[in-house]
Design brief:
This protein is mainly β and about 120 residues long. It has strands at about 1-5, 10, 20-25, 30-40, 45-50, 55-60, 65-70, 75-80, 90-100, 110, 115-120.
């Protein structure tokens, strides 16, 4: 089994910063791409940022220049540094990883349980 566990969410004022972390544990041989998604009340889940194993990144237009995704392959961990937060960033943030459980396995998507980020004064 593979578990992705997020941490670092919370309440922050507009203009503030938060750093999310997501660590994968369990039967992990390697992880291909990792990403952060978010879902606000009444809206569909959307991609926030994604990073390949080699470090190539892409971001949603709404967060470009404010959020930075990074990863530590040795720790099977992905991070999301969020700066200049806005009320519209309020959502549950989910971590995603494309995991290989063994060299003979196929890639499988795993999701974390989500962490709440609330931006409000």
């Amino acid at each position: 089994q593979v578990q992705l566990v997020e941490s670092g969410g919370g309440l922050v004022q507009p203009g503030g910063s938060l750093r999310l972390s997501c660590a994968a544990s369990g039967t992990v041989f390697s992880i291909n791409a990792m990403g952060w998604y978010r879902q606000a009340p009444g809206k569909q889940r959307e991609l926030v940022a994604r990073i390949t194993r080699a470090g190539a990144t892409n971001y949603a237009d709404a967060v470009k220049g404010r959020f930075t995704i990074s990863r530590d392959n040795a720790k099977n961990t992905v991070y999301l540094q969020m700066n200049s937060l806005k009320p519209e960033d309020t959502a549950v943030y989910y971590c995603n990883g494309e995991v290989l459980r063994s060299r003979w396995d196929s890639l499988t998507d795993y999701w974390g349980q989500g962490t709440q980020v609330t931006v409000s004064s």
